Structures
1.
Amino acid sequence: ESQQKVTQPNITVGANHPSYKNCWRTDVMMVTPWLAPIVWDGSFNIDILNAQFHQRGVRIGLTVFAIKKYTVFLKIFIETAEKYFMVGHKVCYYVFTDRPQDIPSFSLGEGRTLNVIEVTSYKRWQDVTMRRMQIISENCLKRFIYEVDYLVCSDVDMMFAGHHGVEMLSDVFAAIHPGFFQASRKQFTHERRPESQGYIPEDEGDYYYTGCYFGGKVEEVYKVANFCHHAMMADKAKNMEALWHDESYLNRYFLYYKPTKLLSPEYVWNNYYGSPVYVKIKRFLHVDKDFEKIRSN
Ligand code: 2GW
Ligand code: MN
């Protein structure tokens, strides 16, 4: 691939909006080639967006799975979500767990509710993480469609550390994996076996998206989750599993059904990747986990 020299645009033409200065950056890509915005700090005016979403009375669901020992992550997840996630909007948490008795009670802000939904666990951890897609898709039809407008689907071993507001929302959105936002296409860890339903050819792939945070309108999330679940089942029938499990199938989906908005790695940071200058704010962090302890049965 030829190295393209990116020239920094100087935005002066047509920049009439009084607050445009706080809504444009020239050091990072702010829009995909298919014209989906990439959300970075300094790319939006939250007051304008909040007014728009309040006008529509938008309801937002946040799904999270806490199966087996992963229930320990829930406290910090919910407590930090109360501080940073969609503050001032209507929020429904959906906690899927096999241990409802281990879910503590939380004091929630106004307009926010938490629903605990019991699900069965799976023996293999790969199935625990992958089956989330099946459960999400089923609940889209059964429940979410009646209760919320947008859904955000997250890993539980995370903590909110900065604003996550309605700027994220769009028909269907994905987050750029923090380990790959500066990587070239050939470095993306997509599934490369053509026999797999997660297959992405070497010369395709737009970004490497993380499996730990995605969302959109309920009907769009249904399509994402339903595709991923069926792709997994088709592979399973052939005794296959994509390299990064649900994340691989998610990347495959987004290659051919492109997200309408992308979240910059600010929205899913991992301190393992340090502090690059582009990342002005780390809004969401992977919590360190003792792998041995937390992943043993
Ligand atoms: C247990 C053993 C090994 C791996 C996962 C689990 C496990 C996961 C579990 O016992 N209980 C549980 O509730 N989970 C859920 O699955 C939980 O919500 C957790 O956040 C999610 C994904 O597992 P996690 O966070 O351990 O995997 P990561 O952080 O390495 O996740 C990335 O890769 C995964 C696929 O391998 C997924 O795509 C995930 O979305 C990615 O962030
Ligand atoms: Mn995780």
Note: The mean pLDDT is 94.
2.
Amino acid sequence: MKVLSVVGARPQFVKCAPVSREVREVHEEVLVHTGQHYDYLLSEVFFNDLGIPAPDHHLEVGSGSHGVQTGRMLAAIEEVIGKEEPDLVLVYGDTNSTLAGALAAAKVHVPVAHVEAGLRSFDRRMPEEVNRVLTDHCSDLLFCPTATAVRNLAAEGVTAGVHLTGDVMVDALRENLPLAKERSTVDLPPKGYYLATVHRASNTDDPAALRAIMGAFARLDLPVVFPAHPRTQKKLAEYGIAPAANVRVTEPLPYFDMLALLSGARAVLTDSGGVQKEAYILEVPCVTLRENTEWVETLEDGWNVLVGADTNRIVAEAEKVAGSPRRHSARFGDGHAAERIAAIIAEYQP
Ligand code: UD1
């Protein structure tokens, strides 16, 4: 089978690394990079570190409003599908690149497979939620990371082609954590710092929210390592918010450095979906700078707490979170999700 995989943003590079390897054992793969993320630290470093094959097509769509960015991708992916004539288009996660890949394929009657299907925050104001719902509803194969995701799809009437595979980020993490620890240059005492990431539009594009979050970091009892997404760096400068003395702002970090820092943190403060889940897997408490999450299992097991962009709640939860009792289980899978995905694709008859 000829599989055309579409990636474009940082979390997709992490997810596609294990899947692409398994897919190439059995199938021919054509890799398309939309160019949604184009900075070296958001893109190329992930290809290099994770050994992802060079893209066969680089669409270089770059930044833009949602309509402009998604529209450019849609047109360009349609053209690539026309040239390559794939049997299946494989998309990942919830970004504009995901939706563009799925929609371009569905419109020209090429089957779509979605890795990380069925996740819901039930917040349609998040661009990612719109991308998730629409992508799932035009997918033929839906690879769910959790049982919750399977239930979410069933509630929307989507049952055909749904497979519970486990989460491919567990595959990536299991494989790469030993390497991350070996290569790590982290010079901070274990459990002696917090790690923070902020990039959701609801936090970065609202000056009051970003100010409240940075105000909370300033009040924390330990240093805060804060690898800032380009969007966040720009907004901090635009709003004139200066990080406090205990906040160490860095460039976005490569995957290995991020894993090493995360595994040693006292707690992580984040609005990223992927980081919430990585924290759970690494047994690091997480304080989520949002009012909702698609990864409800992390809440149920007591590893995660939702605090929004409220200074007092952030400080209170960050400082108490390390002491709470917690359960842990393999709710995100066993590290073999990518193998299952490749096998299901091999058996698929459109
Ligand atoms: C995207 C995804 C989000 C994912 C995140 C991971 C959507 C709607 N959102 O958000 O789900 O969790 O990626 O990082 O697809 N920029 C750069 N350099 C880059 C890329 C972006 O400077 O390499 C800046 C641009 O100014 C751009 C802004 O960041 O306007 C936002 O980038 P965009 O691709 O729209 O979304 P992310 O915020 O990265």
Note: The longest strand covers residues 2-7.
